[in-house]
Structures are given as structure tokens and as C-alpha cells.
Amino acid sequence: MHTIEIDDETYAGLEALAKQERASVSSVVKRALCRLPSLRKPAPVKMPHGYKIPVSEGRKPFTTGDVLKAEEELYREGKA
Predict the structure, then answer these.
(1) Are 73 and 47 in the same domain?
(2) Do both 33 and 52 map to the same domain?
(3) Cα–Cα distance for residue pair 54/44, rounded to 1 Å
(4) Number of domains into which the chain is organized
(5) Whole-Å CA distances, 52 to 6, 7, 27, 47, 67
């Protein structure tokens, strides 16, 4: 469990919202934080062959060359 500091006015608003929704303050905060784009989990992309690959914005695309390099490293290590 982790602790964060929230000013009294903000916490009172969270408590009021939680009471209105018959939820815990923790669940209200979690739901609000999940709406921040930078904290969202990458959405998997459905590929025609059935594999799901997570996509992260702002990241370098995973290429065929990356796959070949990984396979080569596994082969050298005797794991392939």
C-alpha cells in the first residue's frame, strides 16, 4: 500500500463524490487516475493472425529486424 498527500479541500470533494456514488474514496481516485492518458495500459492491437500486440504511443515500432535479432541472441545462448 502507498500513501499520497491530498489537500483537505480536494479530499472533501473526493469524499462527497464517493458518498454520492456509494463508493470508497480509493475507488473514486483509482477511476479518475485511470482516465489519464499517460497512465492507461496500452490497448492491444488485433492482428490478422490472431496475435495481440500492445501498442505504446511515442515508442519505437517493433520491427522484423528486432525479431530476427532476438531469435539470433536466443540461438547463440542455446535457448532456441
Answers:
(1) yes
(2) no
(3) 4
(4) 2
(5) 38, 41, 29, 6, 16
How far is the C-alpha of 11 from the C-alpha of 34, rounded, in Å?
A: 18
Instruction: Output the nine-digit C-alpha cell for 78.
Output: 542455446
**What span, in angstroms and rounded, lies between the C-alpha atoms of 63 and 4?**
40
pTM above 0.85, yes or no: no
6-35 residue pLDDT tens: 999 999 999 999 999 999 999 999 888 877
Using CA atoms of 69, 75, 78, 80 in order, give the dihedral in degrees to the nearest 10. Answer: 100
Q: Which domain holds residue 69?
A: 41-80
- Domain co-membership, 1 together with 36: yes
pLDDT digits (tens, 9 = 90+) for 31-76: 888 777 777 666 666 666 666 666 666 677 777 777 888 888 887 8
Q: Specify whether 9 is located in the same domain as 35.
A: yes
53 vs 45: CA distance, rounded Å: 5
